[in-house]
Design a protein that fits this description.
Helix 13 packs across helix 14. The protein has 17 helices and 9 strands. A hairpin with a 6-residue loop joins strand 8 and strand 9. About 50% of the residues lie in helices and about 10% in strands.
């Protein structure tokens, strides 16, 4: 929809926004839904609460530990959530069933009559792997010129080309898992604290309005609150665990945790395993590229005349690669990539200093302390900075390819890896 299609604001009377209405129409129609349809929503995972379940009380990136997840009753699919959420859900379903039996709720024709969990916890590892595959496709596709291909004779050559890619792409879209988890490409479902009762698109305001207009909406909203849930403003079919509510605190106590200990008990702090994850995906990119392109032509001028030789590229197992390149080596590379994707305005001396101290901590106190030091110095990695960097509309593959090809317009970094 374009500006000419709307004469004045009086013509905007129904929530019709979707991803297809265009910028102008979406602006007005989203406001109709926000202002008139679900005005009193207490959770908004698009805006104020967009990082709910992805950052802890200290604003560190986290994701739910899979060993703590519990199955929700579905009967058809595996739907998982954290223990207090699972307890609260089970109690809510029982409460609604009793309400229907007593006549407090009329289930006929209601969207809230048959409660089934269709979506709860989502694996950040699976989602990031899919996202990383898309990034690799950009790297090995439009970005990979014949000149760059000839540079990749071994892992060292691969890293030089990879750093070119990072310098162009990571300013617009994250490469590391920690950057991904804080971007708009992630989802609150990584935290195992949300339960959805319908498979429905979150951009379709008319559908959201039908849930809010349901005759049992007010009853269901109150029942959810009684059991520690709030409904998401932009998905009235999504229940979000409210750690501040008396209801959810009751289920946390029954599960052996509390609001203060919740993230320590059930979550993994992202940066603690980030170097291992970083190394794994770099190894995967290198081997994938070599397997697809096993030989490279190189210039041989040692015989007195210029000749083209074919060099067979070597693949590695992870163990072989890590025996040749230590954590000491990868730590410098990780700091560089994180600093680029968070747009750190470092000088060369600042970058060198952070790397030096991180390596010192690695040598003297171990990897955990070194990564905590790096995390603090990459801050923000804060929520506000992540919004500024990555909360814009996601780039399409075509837009990413344009950025990767447009080398002349890339900003010059204030620090270098080599």
């Amino acid at each position: 929809m374009k500006r000419k299609d709307l004469i004045d604001n009086e013509h905007v009377t129904e929530p019709k926004a979707s991803n297809k209405t265009g910028a102008y129409g979406t602006f007005y129609y989203r406001d109709v839904y926000k202002s008139f349809v679900f005005r009193d929503a207490e959770k908004n995972l698009w805006d104020a609460d967009s990082y709910y379940g992805r950052v802890n009380h200290s604003k560190e990136v986290v994701f739910a530990s899979e060993r703590n997840l519990k199955q929700l009753s579905n009967g058809e699919a595996t739907v998982l959530a954290l223990p207090p959420v699972a307890l609260a859900w089970k109690s809510l379903v029982s409460y609604v069933e009793k309400a229907k039996f007593r006549g407090d709720m009329n289930p006929e024709g209601s969207l809230y009559s048959d409660l089934k969990p269709v979506h709860a916890w989502a694996s950040p590892h699976k989602y990031f792997a899919l996202y990383n595959n898309e990034m690799y496709s950009s790297f090995s596709g439009k970005f990979m010129t014949s000149l760059r291909d000839r540079k990749i004779k071994d892992f060292d050559g691969f890293l030089r080309v990879f750093l070119e890619f990072v310098g162009q792409a990571a300013r617009h879209t994250p490469w590391t898992r920690e950057g991904y988890l804080l971007s708009n490409k992630g989802t609150p479902h990584f935290g195992g604290m949300c339960v959805e009762i319908a498979e429905a698109p979150h951009d379709l305001d008319s559908l959201k309005a039908s849930f809010v207009a349901d005759k049992n909406f007010t009853f269901f909203k109150k029942a959810a609150a009684r059991h520690g849930f709030k409904l998401d403003k932009n998905a009235p079919w999504r229940l979000v665990a409210d750690l501040n509510s008396r209801g959810m605190q009751r289920y946390m106590k029954r599960s052996g945790t509390s609001k203060d200990n919740f993230y320590n008990d059930y979550f993994i702090t992202g940066y603690e395993w980030e170097l291992q994850n970083f190394k794994h995906y770099l190894w995967g990119w290198y081997n994938n590229y070599v397997n697809a392109n096993p030989v490279v032509q190189v210039v041989n001028s040692s015989v007195g005349k210029t000749e083209l030789d074919l060099v067979v590229r070597e693949t590695y197992t992870e163990e072989e690669l890590y025996s040749q390149y230590s954590d000491h080596y990868f730590l410098k590379l990780y700091v560089y990539v994180r600093a680029v994707e968070t747009s750190k305005p470092w000088s060369q001396s600042t970058y060198d200093s952070v790397v030096y101290k991180a390596r010192d901590f690695l040598r003297l106190k171990g990897l955990d302390v070194a990564m905590k030091y790096v995390h603090k110095n990459i801050e923000p990695c804060s929520v506000d900075k992540a919004k500024e960097l990555f909360d814009k509309k996601s780039l399409t593959s075509a837009q990413t390819d344009v950025i990767l090809r447009n080398r002349n317009k890339q900003e010059k970094l204030s620090f270098r890896y080599y």
